[in-house]
Amino acid sequence: MALNVAQKLINEHLVSGEMTPGKEIALSIDQTLTQDATGTMVMLELEAMEIERAKTEASAQYVDHNVIQEDSKNPDDHLFLESAAKRFGLYFSRPGNGVSHPVHMQRLAIPGRTLLGSDSHTCANGCMGMLAMGAGGIDVAMAIAGEPYYVKMPEIWGVKLTGELPDWVGAKDIILEFLRRHDVKGGVGKIIEYHGPGLEQLSAMDRHVIANMGAELGATATVFPSDEEVKRFLKSQGREDDWYEITADQGATYDIEEEIDLSTLVPMIAKPSSPGNVVAISEVEGEEIYQSYVGSSANPGYSDFAIAADIVKGQQIASGVSFDINPTSRQMLTDLVENGHIASLLSSGARLHQAGCNGCIGMGQAPASGRNSLRTTPRNFPGRSGTREDSVFLCGPEVAAASALYGKITDPRTLDMKYPDVNEPDKPTVDFRLLEEPLTLEKAKATELHKGPNIASIPYMEPLPDNINVPVLLKVGDNFSTDEILAGGARVLPYRSNLPEISKFAFEILDENYYNRSMDIREKSGHAIVGGTNYGQGSSREHAALAPRYLGLKVVIVKDFARIHLQNLINFGILPLTFADPRDFDKLEQGDTLELKNVRKTIQDSKELKAVIQGKDKEIRVLHALSDRQVDIMLTGGLINWVKDRQSDKG
């Protein structure tokens, strides 16, 4: 049977299940990735599970999100992460070494491997011929412990690239065009596999840009073949021996097929406040901007910065514009310095920041209120920038640099210059010391965990009750994101290792009183949340499930869920349900009280439950899509309890 690349990767790692779309499968995991906004909880979970040492081929802990040290919380937690990496046998990337995704690509990514990361943009490493997926932190902890990862077998969506990109149109415009066509839930339940002659024009880092923002489509993963370009990239990093070819078999087919003719593309922009709100630049050209921002895991390559540098070289950015440059790795920054590109940027008036996620996650570089920010980042969800009432547009570096010069959104094709001829360095600066290697087992055992005052243990999670009688504390609409459930940024992320404190920020963007209202009834009854389609889109942060669970959330009823957040709800014992009839969404209001009876037995025997709206003489049918394994997890109150029960059963 002829297989495509995604099928080959899944088949090679299939532990159980069958490759039928919609069926649950278990996959062995070769590598894991954690970052400091999610990794603290993962390390605490490894400690709670009494894991001796990582059982993966390679697991890496990166410090890239919380690099601002305005007080002791972030540096204290970084010391904890460093000690945990040593204790459990992980690679450790220090603050300033760069964003996890491009650094992992440079140092550890290997074609043919599986990668699971507690960051939704882990899918970026699909550019290397890997099956790379984002997941909740506890799923990654389980993978580090040697357990398989469970996911429903996706459909494989083949996207054939033809033609050649015109000047001034880049890889970011390809993925923005795909988002324009299919919006933020178009990839749910799918792996997107790019193929075709158009690939020859795309560098490994160009493919990274496209794979990265597969997360914005809700896709399980994005896959590229491992071809001569991947070989070239690995050779440039001193790792040619890690390469081998993985391409689709002749005659391989896809569940869904689509084509993008690259020659027809124009510069694209996602308008506020969704990555799927994409239009051609002509629709917004001329709008004034306050900020233009180049960097992030969505445009992490050398050429992304070098093109911007060549556009502004010898010129001055517009008055009143903040031109923010966020290098994505120390290696990249060194090469840009050596080739004069940083000098060009600084001379134009740009502001240079340290290598890290920074403004992408709202950790610095927040825009002024009431002003437009133009960014090469992957997301523009409300408030994600760090400014509550923000107005963020997403674009490629060509648009960002051209717009910085004129102080308004500018089509780079109108510039009076030739398209910059930028080539990546043949011999980039390679320093293997930037990613500290795991200690030997003997030294690891002698390492003690360094716990600062901001570390708080995960509280006990009660098993699923048999009868649920709860008020609807919130009702939200479609595409409600994890950034809106629990924001990132400099105010919030320093508490990611302190669940009681970080819970105070839950849903604050929607309802500043949610915390107090939930705490008032937490012990008495708990509560429910009702939502529309694609609930929980965006980040993989498990705190978006953990914090509401801590505040008494027992059940979420929506039209449908985003993949990672659905699993996070299950992992922490929150019952995820969908409307049997989506029109019943209109029957529920904030303040209604829901009653579900005989829940424990019902979810074991049936996929359907009945929810009574008390005082309204109404009843609605709701469904669960839990596998037998997930039902067991739900009954115990979450994955931590489930693991402990299994360990007890083993004696």
Describe this structure in words.
This protein is of the alpha/beta class and 651 residues long. It is built from 21 helices and 27 strands. The protein has a seven-stranded mixed β-barrel with strand order 21-22-23-24-27-26-25, surrounded by four helices. A six-stranded mixed sheet has the order 7-6-3-4-5-20, with helices on both faces. The radius of gyration is 24 Å and the shape is globular.
Walk across the major sheet and give the strand order. 21-22-23-24-27-26-25
Q: Which CATH architecture of the largest domain would you pick?
A: 2-Layer Sandwich
User: Would you tell me the structural class of the helices and strands?
Assistant: alpha/beta
Q: What distance lies between the first and last C-alpha atoms, to the nearest angstrom?
A: 44 Å
- Which fold name is given in CATH as the topology of the largest domain? Aconitase, domain 3
Quickly count the helices.
21
Shape: globular
* Mean pLDDT across residues: 95
Rounded to an integer, what's the Rg over CA atoms?
24 Å
Portion of residues within helices: 25-40%
Subunit structure: Monomer.
Catalytic activity: citrate = D-threo-isocitrate
Pfam families: Aconitase, Aconitase_C
GO biological process, one term: tricarboxylic acid cycle
